[in-house]
């Protein structure tokens, strides 16, 4: 059995307590992927201290050398994409092809910030004194804590860590305990690329044990977190006023199908957005709002397409849905399905899959509910599984009102060919990511990403050039002759 260590102050080391936890394959719970350190607050404090001690030296390292580290790490990810992807699928469950795409996308992210970080500078300001130069300069913050989720365990931490490092910050990185191996491989790539000791510290363990130590400690100047709204809000409330927070949280993302929509296209977008990652994407489609005039026809086509979907291990060619990532997630999704059965009309799915290889893993049939109304829990609460709720609407105004009637505002999409709807949708919808005739999932490496309302702190955006702003502070300098 492979035992994986923390990386603190330049050394791979076991946690001081000697305790570990097991990471299992969600497609086969009897398959032990690896054993990881069950760290305590003492280990976390050591990681923060190491990052704080390394900050002065890394801050002074020329940006070209910092960028070169990112490029070498990208080389490592690309050279090992197949093996890292296989491990990602084994511990998280997504299709092997999607896992490989994630690894390569993460390499692309590292290269993007290696370039953009070298041109992210201050400004020179005109003034009336010919003997005075006024300019701003951007400086790193210090120690940054990165807490990543399990659904994109390489790409999400990559888009947090890369801009943090290239701007001169040091990092404490905690991956999800449901997918720690993928985070380990990302950290390994960066460390092998030549990071000095203490610049990147990797630590595993439960949030209950180490969360406060890596978020509330005085040396921590910024926290970038992706996860549930509840956990993000707890962190946001607990940290000092001087600590920046970047929280990307939950979603209840609508796909609006207008009366003029291409219904086959709408069905394809529904399937891709709601089921391709077994519903385990923060931007996944969980609500489909359909014009009453086409609701019956849309539903018929959707059910026909869902009936063809193949559920199985991510290692199986041609599969459409993999397992849920953990037994805990399985229980959550099944609980919401039971809630849905008491609220709305179940059209398909609605059960855990059993028999054969299904008995080994955490599989749920793709599930569709109809006759869903706004007050229902399955219309309002994030499920994070392969469950879609269909709601009807009368006209565009009704669709927008229902789509916006949520505490979340992460992603939203509309299917239409009407120029008027297209023109108004981006303004009318309350979401940070807006799609027209595209699925709610997916975002570009070079474009900003983030939500509104309880989906985000709505302060600093991730991804794109804008993603560098969170990790820097501005000084304004007045220099006389």
Keywords:
single chain, 481 residues, alpha/beta, Aldehyde Dehydrogenase, Chain A, domain 1, Aldehyde Dehydrogenase, Chain A, domain 2, 2 domains, five-stranded parallel sheet, 14 helices, 22 strands, Aldehyde_DH_dom, Aldehyde dehydrogenase, thermostable
Describe the structure in your own words.
With 481 residues, the chain is α/β, with parallel strands linked by helices. The protein is 37% helix and 23% strand. Strand 19, helix 14 (419-428) and strand 20 form a beta-alpha-beta unit. It comes from Cupriavidus yeoncheonensis. InterPro entries: Ald_DH/histidinol_DH (IPR016161), Ald_DH_C (IPR016163), Ald_DH_CS_CYS (IPR016160), Ald_DH_CS_GLU (IPR029510), Ald_DH_N (IPR016162), Aldehyde_DH_dom (IPR015590).
TL;DR?
The protein has helices at residues 41-60, 63-79, 81-92, 96-116, 155-166, 180-192, 207-215, 229-238, 263-275, 295-306, 327-343, 377-380, 396-404, 419-428; strands at residues 3-4, 6-8, 11-13, 20-25, 28-37, 124-125, 132-140, 143-147, 170-174, 200-202, 220-226, 244-248, 253-257, 285-291, 345-348, 367-370, 387-393, 408-409, 411-415, 433-436, 452-453, 472-480.
Strand count, sense and barrel status of the largest sheet are: 7 strands, mixed
The CATH class of the largest domain is Alpha Beta
Could you say what the CATH architecture of the largest domain is?
Answer: 3-Layer(aba) Sandwich
Distance between the termini: 66 Å
| Mean pLDDT figure | 96
Helix content: 25-40%
The coarse silhouette is: globular
Considering the protein shown, what is the CATH homologous superfamily of the largest domain? Answer: Aldehyde Dehydrogenase, Chain A, domain 1
Strand neighbour order, sheet with most strands: 15-16-17-14-13-19-20
What radius of gyration results from the CA coordinates? 23 Å
Q: In terms of structural class, how would the helical and strand content be classed?
A: alpha/beta
Strand content: 15-25%
Total beta strand runs: 22
């Amino acid at each position: 059995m492979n035992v994986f260590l923390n990386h603190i102050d330049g050394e791979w080391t076991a946690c001081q307590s000697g305790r570990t936890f097991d990471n299992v394959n969600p497609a086969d719970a009897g398959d032990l992927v690896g054993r990881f350190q069950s760290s305590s607050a003492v280990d976390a404090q050591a990681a923060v201290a190491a990052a704080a001690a390394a900050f002065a030296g890394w801050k002074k390292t020329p940006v070209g050398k910092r960028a070169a580290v990112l490029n070498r790490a990208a080389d490592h990810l690309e050279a090992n994409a197949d093996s890292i992807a296989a491990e990602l699928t084994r511990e998280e469950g997504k299709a092997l092809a999607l896992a490989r795409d994630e690894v390569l996308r993460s390499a692309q992210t590292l290269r993007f910030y290696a370039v953009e970080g070298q041109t992210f500078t201050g400004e020179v300001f005109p003034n009336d004194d010919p003997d005075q130069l006024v300019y701003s300069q951007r400086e790193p913050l210090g120690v940054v804590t990165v807490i990543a989720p399990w659904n994109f365990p390489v790409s999400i931490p990559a888009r947090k860590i890369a801009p943090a490092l290239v701007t001169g910050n040091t990092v404490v990185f905690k991956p999800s305990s449901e997918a720690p191996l993928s985070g380990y491989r990302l950290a390994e790539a960066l460390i092998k690329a030549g990071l000095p000791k203490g610049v990147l510290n990797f630590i595993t363990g439960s949030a209950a044990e180490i969360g406060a130590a890596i978020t509330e400690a005085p040396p921590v100047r910024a926290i970038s977190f992706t996860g549930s709204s509840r956990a993000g809000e707890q962190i946001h409330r607990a940290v000092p006023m001087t600590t920046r927070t970047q929280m990307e949280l939950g979603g209840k993302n609508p796909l609006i199908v207008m009366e003029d929509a291409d219904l086959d296209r709408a069905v394809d977008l529904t399937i891709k957005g709601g089921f391709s990652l077994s519903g385990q994407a923060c931007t996944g489609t969980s609500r489909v709002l359909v014009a009453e005039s086409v609701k019956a026809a849309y539903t018929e086509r959707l059910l026909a397409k869902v009936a063809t979907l193949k559920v199985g291990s991510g290692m199986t060619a041609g599969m459409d849905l993999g397992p849920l990532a953990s037994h805990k997630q399985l229980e959550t999704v099944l609980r919401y399905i039971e809630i849905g059965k008491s609220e709305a009309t179940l059209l398909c799915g609605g059960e855990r899959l059993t028999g054969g290889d299904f008995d080994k893993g955490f599989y749920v049939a793709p599930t569709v509910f109809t006759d869903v109304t706004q007050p229902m829990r399955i219309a309002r609460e994030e499920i994070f599984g392969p469950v879609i709720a269909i709601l009807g609407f009368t006209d565009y105004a009704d669709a927008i009102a229902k789509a916006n009637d949520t505490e979340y505002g992460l992603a939203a999409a509309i299917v239409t060919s009407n120029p008027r709807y297209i023109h108004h949708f981006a303004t009318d919808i309350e979401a940070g990511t807006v799609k027209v005739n595209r699925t709610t999932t997916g975002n570009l490496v070079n474009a900003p990403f983030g939500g509104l309302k309880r989906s985000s702190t709505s302060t600093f955006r991730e991804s794109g050039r804008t993603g560098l702003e969170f990790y820097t502070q501005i000084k304004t300098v007045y220099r006389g002759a």
